[in-house]
Amino acid sequence: MHSVQFVPAFLVLASVIAQKLPPLRDHLLIADTGVGHRSSPVQTWQTSLRRLESDGSSTRTLFEYGNPTPQNQPIGSTSIVLDPETLSVYVATGQGIIRTEIDGSGNETVIPESATSVVLAGGRLYWGTMYDGLIKSANLDGTDVKMARNVSSGINYNIIPSYTPAISYPDGLAVVPRDFMYWSSSNSGIGQVENGTIKRISISLSKEMKYEEILVTSVNMPGQLRVVGPWLYFVEKGRYSNSPTSLKRFKIPLARNRDPVAIETIISASQFPEIFTENDKVDKLTLSIKSFAVDTENKRLWVAAESNSRIMFAKIIEMGLDGEDVKVINSDPKQIGIPVGLEYVR
Ligand SMILES: *[C@@H]1O[C@H](CO)[C@@H](O)[C@H](O)[C@H]1NC(C)=O
Ligand SMILES: *[C@@H]1O[C@H](CO)[C@@H](O)[C@H](O)[C@H]1NC(C)=O
Ligand SMILES: *[C@@H]1O[C@H](CO)[C@@H](O)[C@H](O)[C@H]1NC(C)=O
């Protein structure tokens, strides 16, 4: 108590505020899926939420999901979304969608099921399920769960149990309230995995708009989606460690789409073999793009790529919104984890 008398009052106030509010310097949040035990031993670590400064420096682990096990077995994660209003962070993990504060404190499971991805729109959470091919939504506290759409294209229970029986399932999602819901439609059917599509359906109130449109076909495992101005950006994850992987975009059609949309490549592994190819001493591996985050104000974006194999590789790559000025800002998986989700915090 005594020492306080020597501290100017405004500094005491400043430190109280600093403790109450999360540091608001712009940064990136990373959903790290973690590294599990392999037949050839590698370092394992838990699924985590990490923070990376937007210049690639100074990483911090904010939260570790799931209870620690002797071998640090991760519970896995697929996706992250920030609510900029409440500064809550939602991560889709193998044990459900878990909410924390932006600093990783106050964990709470809001949706007790695993999801392929999670997004926020109009004050609700939307997520995709792989097993039964559904898009669901709920209030931010997990109440009022609804089926937003059944995109399964049918269920096939005759294939190997535990494998996804939905013929197709949603991966990435983008929801624009009172406009459209977009999803990456991935296929589980034999010979169809490489033919992922991006679809949308109107969610406006007018009934005559309720048709489903196929916007893009032949994507090798379409992943995360984001609407950025007039564009829809999408990740092509690639199925295998040597499959094509890229971030692409197209202009969102304003009216019902009858012609194929024109696709632009923002970045692809084949354009930058020096960034995306690593040799683990057995094979040449292509790092797979899993996620991206956008700073619309400063017209920058970051791509997260990883190769979760015998040896783990992971990179965060910064560029302009058109794919210009590409630079790797961090390539140390011990710092950035195995990044499967990225969010930018202003
Ligand atoms: C999360 O919060 C609960 C209490 O609600 C606690 O029991 C649990 O240990 C916390 N940590 C993790 C990693 O889930
Ligand atoms: C989704 O649709 C498929 C048919 O396309 C059906 O078999 C399945 O039961 C539906 N799922 C739900 C939860 O309604
Ligand atoms: C890919 O999927 C689309 C939409 O379902 C379909 O029209 C097209 O025939 C498929 N292409 C191949 C090569 O299977």
Amount of beta strand: over 45%
**Mean pLDDT across all amino acids:** 88
Oligomer status: single chain
Unreliable stretches (pLDDT < 50, length at least 5) are 1-22
In total, the number of domains comes to 1
Classified in CATH, the superfamily is: TolB, C-terminal domain
Q: How many strands in all? A: 26
The tally of helices reads: 3
In the CATH scheme, the class would be: Mainly Beta
- Taking Cα atoms only, what radius of gyration do you get, to the nearest Å? 21 Å
What's the CATH architecture name?
6 Propeller
Please describe what this structure looks like.
- Strand 2 and strand 3 (59-64) form a beta hairpin.
- Helices cover 6% and strands 47% of the residues.
- The chain is mainly beta and 346 residues long.
- One 2-acetamido-2-deoxy-beta-D-glucopyranose is lined by residues 65-66, 107.
Features:
signal; 26 strands; binds 2-acetamido-2-deoxy-beta-D-glucopyranose; 6-blade_b-propeller_TolB-like; Neuraminidase; four-stranded antiparallel beta sheet; 3 helices
